[in-house]
Backbone:
């Protein structure tokens, strides 16, 4: 395909184009708050109930996010007939068991990344959801954003040509008391931050045939910085990095034989990118407001769309893709000795 005259339009649904579901929120931390705010401010989705280990904490969170009900017991929420789908935002080591509990109750489920601390846990969740016939997805919100649907169309149309190189990084600095530094909570750079560059590469290129990696530990013992190289039987290679020890550029790039696509900073969030033609130097600019985590509502719209259509998986992020990228994450961690205490 020749270089286009203009960029395609995102096909992601608008908030009023999907049915309003009742959401149950499991977990009351930072990401749960951001998710609820995105639903409340940008969609017609309902926050039907929240649950926490204490009724007082559940009550306080329900008031803060505008939930209809607060439960101090998970079974109460799972028995709540107004809850159609549960969003799991508990600590990483709890994701598998919490998801299995929701699935056993016959509820649809959206699980905050990662679906499990390793690929085997994700396989268990996927198998249970498929057997129960309920919708299940990992909340890796990046792939549900409008800009990534535009990228999806460009790649599928062959605008970039054959992909030869991918670069991506995600790095932030965290205070000493942050949970990401806690070995008891499967802390470290990989599950919170490394998911984004690894997802990016495997989304575009699939499973590599060779993985190389080196890592450096933080003072708490968790893996602080990881540099990864993925090699493919085609021309393609991916250079990826993640760190919790300091800020990285947080950019992404796709280089093809015909064109290059360069994302602005925080490539995994809502924002803009530039498409550059290799032959002529002509550039097309995609502009998207950088609303950060206010864009989490797009994953909820996809869940509502799929459930309304009777789907149990989203074609934008099938369960097999989630398992596949966690296989790569496991491979990287094996090579750098990054084993979690609960594995």
Residues:
């Amino acid at each position: 395909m020749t270089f286009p005259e203009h960029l395609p339009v995102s096909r992601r649904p608008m908030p009023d184009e999907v049915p309003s579901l009742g959401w149950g929120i499991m977990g009351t931390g930072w990401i749960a708050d951001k998710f609820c705010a995105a639903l409340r401010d940008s969609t017609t989705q309902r926050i039907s109930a929240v649950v926490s280990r204490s009724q007082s904490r559940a009550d306080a969170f329900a008031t803060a996010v505008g939930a209809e009900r607060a439960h101090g017991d998970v079974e109460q929420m799972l028995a709540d007939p107004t809850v159609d789908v549960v969003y799991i935002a508990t600590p990483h080591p709890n994701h598998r068991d919490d998801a299995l509990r929701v699935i056993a109750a016959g509820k649809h489920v959206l699980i905050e990344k990662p679906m499990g601390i390793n690929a085997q846990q994700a396989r268990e969740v996927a198998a249970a959801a498929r057997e129960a016939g309920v919708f299940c997805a990992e909340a890796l919100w990046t792939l549900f954003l409008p800009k990534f649907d535009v990228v999806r169309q460009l790649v599928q149309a062959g605008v970039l040509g054959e992909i030869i190189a991918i670069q991506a990084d995600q790095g932030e600095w965290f205070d000493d008391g942050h949970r990401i530094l806690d070995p008891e909570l499967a802390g470290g750079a990989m599950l919170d931050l490394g998911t984004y560059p690894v997802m990016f590469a495997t989304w575009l290129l699939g499973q590599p045939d060779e993985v190389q990696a080196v890592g450096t530990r933080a003072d708490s013992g968790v893996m602080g910085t990881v540099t990864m190289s993925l090699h493919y039987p085609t021309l393609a290679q991916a250079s990826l990095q993640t760190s919790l020890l300091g800020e990285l550029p947080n950019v992404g790039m796709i280089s093809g034989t015909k064109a290059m696509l360069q994302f602005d900073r925080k490539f995994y969030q809502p924002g803009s990118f530039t498409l550059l033609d290799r032959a002529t130097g002509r550039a097309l600019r995609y502009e998207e407001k950088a609303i950060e985590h206010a864009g989490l509502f797009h994953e909820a719209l996809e869940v509502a769309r799929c459930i309304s259509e009777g789907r149990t998986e989203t074609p934008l992020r099938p369960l097999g893709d989630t398992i596949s990228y966690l296989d790569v994450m496991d491979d990287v961690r094996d090579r750098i000795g990054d084993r979690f205490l609960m594995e």
Remarks:
- The chain has two domains: 15-142, 156-290+317-336.
- The mean pLDDT is 97.
- The first strand starts at residue 22 and ends at 26.
